[in-house]
Backbone:
């Protein structure tokens, strides 16, 4: 992966500068030791060098300081002393302005890449969960088909044994109920196929390209920051060289100021015999060393109408949240661009982290929206306008003594229990009685508070519906 290669290169460059810093410190320590020895030798030899081994008259430090050779030698040692400190400063600058920023960039890059990988894995998990729901719906549908066939065979057997047998009537009711269950499972399976296809399309056409763009942006930022730091390293070294150059220029100036004749005139009163030695010593000192179709039978239709009501209610609640998250992500995107173009405003990496978090959160809400809108469109297309009265129950489905499969109850929405005080009612009647087109809906307990109420923003998973239980999470 290109990003991993760039990160590996960054690590290598950091280690290179780390070792360079260590070498600078080692060099500075050795240079300091060398200068110390040279200064000690100078202190012992300078008098003899300037005035001779046995001056013939009294002298003091000011006399020696008049020597142009002493000035040059003193400047040479001072320049090396300053250079040793400059190498230490260079090592410290490399550590603080190159090595540590590269290390921080590595750490930030690894953390951001880890978050991106976790985001990708979560996208995969959400997609696979939708795929799994489709498989489960298929299995459920197959099981219901098998049950229908089983009840049909049983009904045939009972009819052959006795047409008046009371068991035959019960078998007929069971067979009829099983047909309804089978059709509901078929509808759920077809819905799950539509959802899975839509999620798959969005995953490959939007999510993956967007993720690739994010990785490319991280790669670009990594390389851009890498170049900035290494350029800082070059600037540090150029400044270091300029400082060394200033020492060399100063030393060169004192060397240019060495006046053999003036030094001879200075030493002559003290000893004429030292002149030759002074010339030889001066020469030594100046030597420098450089280093399918859905069923719309009456009972399944009620199921679809109820499910459509739920989907639309959730979509209506999701829309302001989705709009808010989109706006938040767009604003942060602008901030990223602004901070990138003008780093004096602050750290663009922190703004980028906030933008990526907002973008990821919006993506999961959008996925929930895709699921809900796809279900709504699929069911609405099947119902062809016969969507029911959309009258909500005032009781919960749990108040029914018999589990039902129409999302809340198996009665149409205009049943007495839904319009008169919320009385608990018991499902009754045959399929022919359940032919009205009204739908039932009740606000589920697990739904998070809406954003418009001023309460906490719902999580993306609170908007997702499963094939049967309306509660499969598609992401936090």
Residues:
């Amino acid at each position: 992966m290109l990003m991993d290669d760039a990160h590996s290169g960054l690590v290598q460059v950091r280690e290179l500068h780390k070792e360079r810093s260590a070498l600078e410190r080692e060099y500075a320590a050795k240079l300091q030791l060398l200068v110390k020895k040279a200064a000690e030798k100078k202190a012992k030899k300078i008098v003899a060098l300037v005035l001779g081994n046995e001056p013939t008259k009294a002298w003091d430090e000011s006399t020696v300081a008049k020597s142009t050779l002493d000035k040059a030698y003193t400047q040479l040692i001072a320049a090396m002393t300053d250079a040793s400190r400059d190498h230490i400063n260079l090592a410290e600058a490399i550590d603080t302005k190159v090595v540590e920023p590269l290390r921080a960039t590595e750490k930030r890059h690894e953390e951001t890449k880890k978050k991106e990988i976790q985001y990708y894995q979560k996208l995969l998990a959400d997609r696979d969960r939708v795929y799994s729901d489709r498989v489960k719906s298929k299995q459920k549908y197959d099981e219901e088909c098998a049950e229908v066939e089983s009840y049909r065979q049983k009904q045939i057997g009972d009819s052959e044994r006795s047409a008046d047998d009371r068991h035959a009537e019960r078998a007929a009711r069971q067979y009829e109920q099983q047909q309804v269950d089978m059709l509901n499972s078929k509808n759920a399976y077809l819905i799950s196929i539509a959802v899975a296809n839509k999620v798959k399309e969005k995953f490959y056409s939007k999510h993956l390209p967007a993720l690739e763009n994010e990785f490319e942006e991280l790669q670009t930022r990594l390389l851009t920051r890498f170049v900035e730091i290494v350029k800082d390293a070059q600037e540090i070294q150029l400044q270091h060289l300029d400082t060394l150059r200033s020492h060399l220029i100063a030393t060169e100036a004192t060397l240019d100021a060495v006046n053999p004749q003036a030094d001879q005139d200075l030493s002559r009163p003290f000893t004429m015999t030292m002149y030759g030695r002074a010339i030889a010593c001066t020469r030594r000192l100046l030597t420098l060393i450089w280093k399918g179709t859905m069923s719309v039978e009456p009972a399944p239709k009620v199921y679809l109408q109820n499910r459509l009501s739920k989907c639309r209610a959730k979509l209506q609640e999701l829309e302001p949240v989705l709009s808010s998250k989109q706006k938040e992500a767009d604003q942060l995107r602008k901030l990223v661009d602004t901070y990138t173009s003008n780093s004096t405003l602050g750290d663009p990496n922190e703004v980028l982290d906030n933008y990526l978090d907002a973008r990821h959160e919006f993506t999961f809400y959008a996925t929930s929206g895709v699921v809900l809108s796809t279900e709504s469109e699929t069911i609405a297309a099947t119902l062809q306008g016969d969507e029911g009265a959309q009258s909500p129950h005032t009781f919960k489905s749990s108040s029914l003594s018999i589990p039902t499969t129409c999302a809340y109850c198996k009665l149409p929405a205009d049943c007495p229990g839904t319009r008169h005080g919320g009385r608990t009612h018991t499902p009754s009647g045959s399929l022919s009685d359940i032919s009205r087109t009204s739908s039932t809906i009740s606000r589920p307990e697990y739904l998070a508070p809406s954003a418009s109420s001023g309460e906490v923003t719902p999580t993306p998973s609170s908007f997702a519906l499963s094939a049967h239980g309306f509660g499969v999470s598609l992401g936090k």
Residues 190 and 292 are 7 Å apart (CA to CA). Residues 416-454, 468-476 have pLDDT under 50 and may be disordered.
